[in-house]
Amino acid sequence: MTMPKQNEGRDRQAIQPGCTVDIILKEDQRSGKKTRGIVQEILTNSLSHPHGIKVRLRDGRVGRIAEIVKSEGT
After folding, report:
1. In angstroms, what CA-CA distances link 17 with 1, 30, 33, 38, 39?
2. Which pLDDT band holds residue 3 (cuts at 50, 70, 90)?
3. How far is residue 32's CA from residue 17's CA, in Å, rounded to a whole number?
4. Which helix (H) or strand (E) holds 35?
5. Alpha-carbon distance 29 to 13, whole Å?
6. Cα–Cα dist 71/74, whole Å
7. Is 3 left (phi over 0), alpha (psi -120 to 50) or beta?
8. Is 12 exposed, middle or buried (CB count within 10 Å of its CB: 0-12, 13-18, 19+)?
9. pLDDT greater than 60 at residue 4
10. Range 27-45 average pLDDT
């Protein structure tokens, strides 16, 4: 079993529309509850962010990426 890279959700270049990701919604930050979805739009402009890149999912929810589940190319 391979461990995911600790910073994979913090680097913008690793994320693209169509990726399946787990995000943490603003209201779930205290509990750490993750929400799975498909990236529609990347909202963070900088190349990286210490708390995770902010994205909008196809269903309209917005949050910071906790983990990339599946990249578009895989």
Report:
1. 27, 27, 22, 7, 5
2. very low
3. 23
4. strand 35-42
5. 24
6. 5
7. beta
8. middle
9. no
10. 97
Domains parsed from the chain with CATH numbers? 12-70 (2.30.30)
CA–CA gap between residue 5 and residue 41 (Å, rounded)? 22
6's tokens: 């600790």
**What is the rounded average pLDDT of the residues 19-46?**
96
Q: Which two tokens stand for residue 47?
A: 């190349």
Q: What is the mean pLDDT of residues 57-73?
A: 91
Mean pLDDT of the chain: 89
- Count other Cβ atoms within 10 Å, centred on residue 27: 9
For 18: left if phi > 0, alpha if psi spans -120 to 50, otherwise beta; the answer is left
